[in-house]
Every structure is written in C-alpha cells, then in structure tokens.
Amino acid sequence: MKEFLLVFRRDAVTREAAPSPEQMQAMMKPWQDWMGSLAAQNKLVNSGNRLSSEGKVVKPGKVVTDGPYVETKEAIGGYIIIRAESMEEAAELSKDCPILQIGGNVEVRALVPMD
Predict the structure, then answer these.
(1) What CA–CA distances, in Å, run from 28 to 20, 33, 51, 75, 85?
(2) Which domains does the chain have, with CATH numbers?
(3) What is the pLDDT along the chain (115 residues), one digit of tens a residue?
(4) CA distance linking residue 39 with residue 83, whole number of Å
(5) In what order do the strands lie in the sheet with 74-84?
(6) What pTM did the predictor assign?
(7) Which residues contact 110 (CB under 8 A, 6 or more apart)?
(8) Residues paired with 111 in a beta bridge
(9) Rounded Cα gap, residues 60 and 58, in angstroms
C-alpha cells in the first residue's frame, strides 16, 4: 500500500457569516463519519489537522512575510494522510469528502519516501 496526502481546499473569499457553535458542530459530524469510515477500512494513516488562517511564508534570501495571502481564491483548510493501492483508489476514497458538499475540492498527492 502507498500513502497519499489529501489536501482540503475551499473558496477563501466568502460572504457568509461565521457559523454559530451549533452550526460548526453540525458541520463536524459528516467529517467524523467520513474519517471514521476510512479508519474502519484501515485506510486512515494520519487524521491530520485543520490549518489556521494565519501563517508566514519564508522566501529565498531568508525573507519572512505574512501569509497566506487573502488575494488567493482558494485556501487550504486542512489535510489527512490515507493508505491506498493506487492514485485512482485514493481519488475514489476522496469522492465522499464533506468539503465537496460546500464547493471545496480535494487535492490527492502521493507521498514519496525519502530513500
């Protein structure tokens, strides 16, 4: 089995109000169910994390700037690592990701061991 990184992206520019705590809890249930399904299939390697909207970008010349940039259309919201036989299987497992229900997308990337 190979390992794949699933990166969750969605529109960074939203006109919606921030969700209430109740709405946040309701949004978490589909994620818990989907990731629980992956774990039950022994496909979940790392449950990942959500990413903060604040950060830094380190550039050549040891220059550090604030980031990520709000002018980008998509923002990375989080990631997980899964186990699959192939890129096609990893993409198939991604089709049930809850982020797709809110207009986001999943980037699937193979992890290449450092030999």
Answers:
(1) 12, 9, 15, 19, 28
(2) 1-13+42-52+73-115 (3.30.70.1060)
(3) 999 999 998 876 555 556 678 877 888 899 999 999 999 999 999 888 888 778 888 889 999 988 766 555 677 889 999 999 999 999 999 999 999 998 889 999 999 988 8
(4) 10
(5) 44-50, 74-84, 2-11, 105-110
(6) 0.81
(7) 2, 3, 4, 5, 87, 90
(8) none
(9) 7
